[in-house]
Amino acid sequence: MFRKSKCLACHAVDQKRLGPLLKEVAAKYQGDSSAADKLARKIREGGVGVWGQLPMPPQPQVSEADAKNLAAYILSL
Ligand code: HEC
Q1: What residue ranges do the domains of the chain occupy?
Q2: In the prediction, which pLDDT does 17 show?
Q3: Which pick of 20, 25, 27, 39 has the fewest CB atoms within 10 Å?
Q4: How far is the CA of 37 from the centre of ligand 1 (A)?
Q5: How far is residue 73's CA from residue 56's CA, in Å, rounded to a whole number?
Q6: pTM for this predicted structure
Q7: Domain 7-75, CATH 3.30.930.30 — does that match?
Q8: pLDDT at position 12
Q9: Any known ligand binding at 1?
Q10: CA angle, residues 28, 30, 33, in degrees to nearest 5
Q11: What is the Cα–Cα distance from 77 to 72, expressed in whole angstroms?
Q12: More confident residue, 7 or 13
């Protein structure tokens, strides 16, 4: 699903690209029980300022359920 959603254009699991390393994202939110909801919302609506000045564009083609699955996947890394 991650590949299908074009996320890999800007994110890799352990290689720096435009967006933050997904492993770093997982580490940053470790122990934050609201992280899955927060990240699912951010995946669909986009945002900026957490990792730098480069914005994450909104991904409205990702359904709410898919965004939750993606967030859970990222947090499991
Ligand atoms: C055009 C490039 C681009 C694409 C495509 C993209 N991202 Fe991002 N993403 C970014 C950038 C840049 C950031 C850092 C935003 C910030 O600093 O707030 C980011 C941040 C994130 C974060 C961390 C959010 C936070 O608040 O800590 C997650 C999770 C994430 N992206 C998941 C995804 C997923 C899942 C997809 C595919 C559906 C995706 N991204 C597609 C560029 C992208």
Answers
A1: 7-75
A2: 82
A3: 27
A4: 14
A5: 18
A6: 0.93
A7: no
A8: 83
A9: no
A10: 120
A11: 9
A12: 7
